[in-house]
Write a structure and sequence with these properties.
Radius of gyration: 23 Å
Structural class: alpha+beta
Order of helices and strands: HEEEEHEEHHHEEEEEEE
Strand content: over 45%
Distance between the termini: 49 Å
CATH superfamily: Lipovitellin, beta-sheet shell regions, chain A
CATH topology: Lipovitellin-phosvitin complex, beta-sheet shell regions
Number of domains: 1
Helix content: 10-25%
Length: 307
C-alpha cells in the first residue's frame, strides 16, 4: 500500500512538473483591463568632445476595453487615463508635464489633459501582436481647438512631440514591448522560447532577439523571465531621416521579469532593465560638411502593473 501511495505521489509530482501550459491572452468581451506604466531613461551622448546627459521619465495609466472577440482577434478601445513626462537636459534645465496639472498656461500639460479619455482603436491577437491601430489622430483634435492662436510652426512642433511620444508608432512599440512575448506553442515549467521583434522610433530602429523562460507556475500566475539582445537591423547602412543620411549601430541587452495571470493572460507585473551602447553617424551634407559621429550610451528601467 505504501509503495502504491509513493508511486501515485511521484506520478502526480512529475505530471505537475511537465504539464504543458498554453500561455496566451484570454480576454473577455466587455471587460476593462488596466495598465500602469513607469519608465526612466538616461541618454549619454558625446558631441564634438562635449558629453551630454539627458534623463527622461514617462508614466501613465491606460484602460483597454474589449469591444469584440472574433476568431482569436480582439477589438479593443484604448484610452489614456493619465499621462506625465519629465526630462532633465544639459545646462541644468528641467521640464515637467502632467495631465493632472491645472494650469492653462502650461500648453503641453493642458494638451496631455485633453488627450485623456479619448479612445482610439486597436486589433490584437492572442499572442499579443498588434494587427492594426486606428483613430489615433482623434487624440489631438481638441488640443488644437484649445489653442487656436498657435502659429503654424508651433502647431507643427507640438503635433510632432505628441506623435513621437503618444502616436501610433510609439504606442505600438510600447504595447508590444509588454505583450509580444507569448509562446506559439504550449510550454512546461522550465520551458524556453524565442520571440524576435523590431522597434522603430523617430531616432533609430532596433531589433530584439528575446529569449524567455517559464520559471514557475503558481495557482494564479505564470512567472516568466526574459533576456533580450539588442542590435541594429540596418547596421552599416545609411538611411534617410529628417532630411539627412543617418546610420545607427547599437548593441545592448534587456533583462525582464513578468507575472502573468493564468486565467486572462494579462501581465499583472513586469519589470525590465535595459543597457545599450553604440553610435549615430550622420553623412556629410550642406549643414555638416564633415559629417558627424555621435557615441552614445542608453540605460533604462521600466515597470508595468495592472493595479
Amino acid at each position: 500500500m505504501k509503495r502504491s501511495l509513493t508511486f501515485l505521489f511521484v506520478a502526480f509530482f512529475c505530471s505537475a512538473c511537465y504539464a504543458q501550459n498554453k500561455i496566451e491572452l484570454n480576454l473577455l468581451k466587455g471587460k476593462v483591463y488596466q495598465q500602469k506604466m513607469s519608465a526612466a531613461m538616461a541618454i549619454k551622448q558625446n558631441i564634438n568632445g562635449a558629453e551630454m546627459l539627458i534623463n527622461m521619465d514617462v508614466s501613465g495609466t491606460t484602460a483597454f476595453t474589449v469591444t469584440d472577440v472574433k476568431e482569436g482577434v480582439y477589438d479593443i478601445d484604448v484610452a489614456y487615463k493619465s499621462l506625465a513626462m519629465k526630462s532633465d537636459i544639459p545646462g541644468g534645465q528641467s521640464m515637467s508635464f502632467d495631465s493632472e496639472k491645472k494650469d492653462e498656461k502650461d500648453t503641453l500639460s493642458t494638451s496631455l489633459a485633453l488627450m485623456k479619455d479619448k479612445p482610439f482603436h486597436m486589433k490584437m491577437n492572442r499572442q499579443g501582436k498588434i494587427l492594426a491601430i486606428s483613430d489615433v489622430s482623434h487624440l489631438y483634435a481638441n488640443v488644437f481647438e484649445k489653442f487656436p492662436n498657435l502659429t503654424p510652426s508651433a502647431r507643427q512642433k507640438l503635433q510632432a512631440q505628441m506623435e513621437q511620444s503618444f502616436g501610433e508608432k510609439a504606442f505600438k512599440n510600447n504595447m508590444e514591448n509588454m505583450t509580444a512575448f507569448y509562446p506559439q506553442t504550449a510550454v512546461g515549467k522550465g520551458g524556453k522560447w524565442k520571440v524576435t521583434s523590431t522597434t522603430a522610433s523617430a531616432n533609430m530602429d532596433i531589433q530584439l532577439e528575446n529569449n524567455y523562460t517559464l520559471d514557475d507556475v503558481t495557482t494564479g500566475q505564470y512567472i516568466i523571465s526574459g533576456v533580450s539582445k539588442i542590435t541594429s537591423p540596418n547596421a552599416g547602412k545609411f538611411l534617410e531621416m529628417n532630411g539627412m543620411s543617418i546610420k545607427t549601430d547599437v548593441l545592448g541587452n534587456v533583462n525582464a521579469s513578468m507575472k502573468v495571470n493564468r486565467k486572462t493572460g494579462w501581465v499583472e507585473e513586469s519589470a525590465s532593465n535595459m543597457s545599450l551602447k553604440g553610435s549615430i553617424s550622420i553623412q556629410a551634407n550642406d549643414k555638416l560638411p564633415d559629417g558627424m559621429t555621435i557615441p552614445m550610451e542608453i540605460s533604462g528601467k521600466s515597470t508595468f502593473s495592472s493595479n
